[in-house]
Design the sequence.
């Protein structure tokens, strides 16, 4: 069965510093996609970044980058130059290519707090 | 602007009542989903639909029902059979299934409370 594990319930980071949020995944499929979402206190889920299992380079989107280590089945999110507005819940998720389900499987999330 | 609209934002239900949560999208997406979020639990899939007039159960479908009569709409009914319905409900849509096509766009959510 597919599973996403986020082992950090909460993280603190100083403003302007970088932070890494951990995510490991479990699947026997070779073709899959990995996603990170941000959930502010208002509740909406905001897409941040995507990595396909066959992508050779790590994905980057502005201050967000995904440290993809396929052999270790990890997909850590790196946020550079943290801002106060980055304080939120962060969720790692996975979907399978061509699967009959096609839905996203989510981890339990990490609460990030940015200190001024 | 394209997006997903959930209503109402807050909903109160008496025990034994059925309530229906609305979800509408104008993104022309084929796939739609309902997730439930409890504190510390992350998101769990209730139902999903990849095409009109078809839907599948997710991990926690018991006590819920859905319909998909139109591409734009995917309402969720929380029935009296749902033992613990108090939660935050999120609706989402995506272009399709698998890989990048599964990038989901979410609504603002509905917070349901049983009183």
Sequence:
């Amino acid at each position: 069965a597919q599973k996403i594990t986020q082992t950090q319930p909460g993280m603190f980071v100083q403003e302007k510093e970088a932070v890494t949020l951990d995510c490991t995944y479990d699947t026997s499929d070779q073709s899959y996609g990995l996603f990170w979402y941000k959930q502010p206190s208002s509740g909406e889920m905001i897409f941040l970044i995507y990595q396909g299992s066959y992508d050779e380079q790590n994905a980057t989107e502005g201050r967000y980058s995904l440290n993809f280590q396929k052999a270790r089945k990890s997909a850590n999110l790196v946020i550079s130059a943290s801002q106060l507005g980055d304080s939120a819940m962060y969720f790692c998720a996975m979907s399978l290519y061509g699967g009959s389900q096609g839905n996203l499987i989510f981890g339990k999330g990490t609460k990030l707090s940015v200190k001024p | 602007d394209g997006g997903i609209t959930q209503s109402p934002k807050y909903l109160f239900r008496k025990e034994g009542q059925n309530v229906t949560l609305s979800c509408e999208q104008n993104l022309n997406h084929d796939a739609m989903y309902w997730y439930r979020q409890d504190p510390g639990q992350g998101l769990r899939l209730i139902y999903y639909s990849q095409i009109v007039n078809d839907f599948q159960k997710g991990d926690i479908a018991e006590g819920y029902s859905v319909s998909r009569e139109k591409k734009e709409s995917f309402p969720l009914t929380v029935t009296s059979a749902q033992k613990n319905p108090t939660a935050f409900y999120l609706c989402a849509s995506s272009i399709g299934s698998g890989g990048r096509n599964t990038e989901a766009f979410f609504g603002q959510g509905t917070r349901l409370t049983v009183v």
Observations:
- The CA atoms of residues 7 and 86 of chain B lie 16 Å apart.
- The interface with chain A takes residues 31, 33, 35, 40-45, 48, 50, 56, 58, 88, 90, 92, 94, 96-109, 111 of chain B (CB under 8 Å).
- The two ends of chain B are 35 Å apart (CA to CA).
